[in-house]
């Protein structure tokens, strides 16, 4: 028997093509005669539109059409219906409030944030379209601007959406036990405010859409760097009044998604509509300023959190009041707020819980999930609170954590909360104490500090519910050549699906890896699918692939048995070859089986399960969440004169169940940590009180390069998930969850002699200097 492919560190098969410049991104799609689009965006954060005059723009060279809100008012406004849907059981138990705020494809009456689309120009080139934008004359009447979520909740705050009673987008609360009694009886209580600041996914490749209507078949083909092609297809079909079967969406190579490309945008409706109206292909590409200011933002939350503990450090209760800045529109409903709510407890045993979350509408760009999706924010609050509690108790922060961790013998562990599906929240497997033990053992604090430098150590732990449903699709077909085509509904944005999914299929089928071709994100290849979001692809598409492969293998063994005239139980399929258990028995290759018609007179089964077509389609529906987890530790050195921070050591120990490909897993964790460090130390989207973004270019918005990311000291444990056949858990987001918290804890530890308390990031040199200047024990 050959060595299983699952678990092997196979180099990514897609890298050779990409590194040679043979990627196929939206910008590489050759559409002869394509028109190009440019979007006119609001310069105001809040204003009424008094008039729009496009006369001069229409007369500009090369201009084909100029549309305003009036021209597309007959089309349905954009609504991310699947993201906004509240599972019935969750609605029944918690009765959350979720306000619907449909977004017009182009603004008509008023604009609600800087960057909102007001008009769109189509021309022979992007240059000509951009020139024409300057000729569109829009008259605005400015309105009061809200950028502070607390102010937006005031009774006298101006309304963003006139059909809503207030500026609340989402409200949900949950309680476990008797938190009031626990706080009243506690030995020690800490109360803090921690803010997760706003920043942006900022993928290397900005958003892009191309569309063409086939004049012969009438089929509309859309190329998009989306993470959810099936949802894009359904929304286009609904918006344009088409049958979904006549719309094909292809997720091309994607230069980074990170959640920002996992939702629907108005441009994904406008460009396909234009292709039909103009009778020629249409392409739109977002520039960097648009991406930073008008694509979705993330992370901004305020946590007013309290912890109660006994004298020995056992946590008795937590209370948190969470305010989430949704921006101008409610695009994804409970996704981020509820992720924050049900991940707040992390790996800790906390019997009494009181959490209240409110999402607020403000005159800023709309916020949606970004790698981690509500978990980095809530982990920042909880792990900072843990360190503040440890300080008040006079305990080592790592020891406080160790005393409150749920043990492996408690698995599966129910928290008393309900998960996003509305079922009792359960941690399926894990060994949290071992994660922390390994992290602590790896930490090496320098024996001496250099003059003017302060060294600190920080810890942070997290859990992540992965494998979000409702389903994912995989289809396997054996071609007459013996090659295997695997089509999955989940596209890749760098996760290495063409390698890891092929490894799963190779084991399930019993074929070599190099005969498998993986197609992801093409709605014609898999008519049904969800997408690559929420750390779900490996769990859902992977297990769908595994099951489809096993079914095809069973069919193939049955067909081979009939071809060789031996019982199926006597056959094995290894490396694409059927052999019998007898040493000198007959053999048959999969290609020989697939490439030949049934022998004349051979009776065919009639049970519907073992026909001659070697293909299967499986829709895998996860029965629950597979909970991944991790412990991070950091040793930092802070220059007390300049505020400059250096990461001396970064430790991560993670648990994602069975690892399909260790190389890819390490890359995923490393990438997540790099983005987390970016948010912790560098990146921030800043708005002025007038709602104007102040960090709209890379001159102002700092993104770390590889030189700013330290070498990682990485380790892992494996707690297979009982929630799926493969025992896997998602890990694409895990690395991004803890860096903000662990680095804040390390900096506070370093600056403890000065009485510094870190309540927000990014921890830039200027912010660290401000913390030192304003600290109670400051001597400068």
Keywords:
6-stranded mixed sheet, alpha+beta, 780 residues, 7-stranded mixed sheet, single chain
Q: What's the SSE blueprint?
A:
Elements: H1 15-19, E1 35-41, E2 47-53, H2 55-58, E3 63-68, H3 81-84, H4 88-94, E4 97-98, E5 110-111, E6 117-123, H5 126-133, E7 137-142, H6 149-152, E8 168-176, H7 179-185, E9 188-196, E10 208-213, E11 220-224, H8 229-240, E12 247-251, H9 267-278, E13 282-285, H10 288-294, E14 301-309, E15 315-327, H11 335-343, E16 352-361, H12 375-393, H13 397-404, E17 413-418, E18 424-427, H14 432-442, E19 453-466, E20 472-478, E21 484-488, H15 497-509, E22 516-520, H16 537-564, E23 571-574, E24 577-580, E25 587-589, H17 590-595, E26 615-620, E27 626-639, E28 645-655, H18 662-681, E29 712-717, H19 739-750, H20 765-774
Parallel strand pairs: 1-13, 11-12, 15-16, 21-22, 28-29
Antiparallel strand pairs: 1-6, 2-5, 2-7, 3-6, 4-8, 8-16, 9-14, 10-11, 10-13, 14-15, 17-18, 19-27, 20-21, 20-26, 23-24, 24-25, 27-28
